[in-house]
Amino acid sequence: MSKVSFLGAGVWGTALAIMLAKNGHAVTLWSAIGEEIDMLAKYREHKEKLPGVLLPDSVRVTKDLKEACIGFDLIVFSVASPYIRTTAKKAAAYIPNGQRIVNVGKGIEEGTLKTLHEVIKEELPNCDVCVLSGPSHAEEVCVGMPTTVVVGADNGETAGFIQEIFMNDTFRVYISPDIIGIELGGSIKNVIALAAGICDGMGFGDNTKAALITRGITEISRLGAAMGGRPETFAGLSGIGDLIVTCTSNHSRNHNAGYLIGQGRTLKETLIEVNQVVEGVHSAKAAYSLAQKYNVSMPIVEQINKVLFEDVPAAEAIKTLLTRDRCNEYPDLDWTERH
Fold it and tell me: Is 306 a catalytic residue?
């Protein structure tokens, strides 16, 4: 049995906390939102977002950040991406050197263009920080539906440690050294999912969505390669796997937000209606800035930024994508090599 603390009691943190408690670990769940902890303490469930899914009696809930940071074998960062840095900064006073940390959120910090792993490392430079990602909706994990994810770590020992804690007969965990590839896949797929949702909201069909998923992973892979990620990663769970589930599921807040925009809602109206952090909105500008920094073509990401932040109509953005200059699907393929 390991002692595990979760910093962040949203749906994903709560779902994983429930799972790890059932795995036999001693789990503590913290949130900076007092009302959230009061609700979990009183009702033992996330009444609005995970109704009917009860916290095991063994899960402790707390508002005390110090209590949630000292004396744990593992600390899980499960706060939404916009709050990663502030949470890490506040926790730094209590987290000991050498602490093993796994981040389960997905995003890119807009101002610095850093991945969340890099943000945590910057605030907690003496800790062993890794990431967990993949196609994994909280609503399914918390009720034991078969799920597969990947852990990215700087060393195999830490990766194996995380794998051992999380893995069970319905939650399979792979390990990988490609942290940057895993994080980019998990972050930018949310931007592509907004595009998929917009197309669904506009009434387009399977052809459109298949094109977005396929060309979306191409864009993610291009940027990932430029930033040092491995091609295999983008063909794996945190790449195409996570992209498929986020672009096609009603559980996906990014897809659902895109759907509302496709139906004619403004971004402000959409965020109010979704009533959760829509990670793709926060990652869109950063993804496009990274594309410009590394001189990588990402036309879907570019057009999503125009729709979200420049009031370009979605129909106009789609037309722009379809009428770009003609090109080969894979420019590196040589015609002469085919004969």
Answer: no
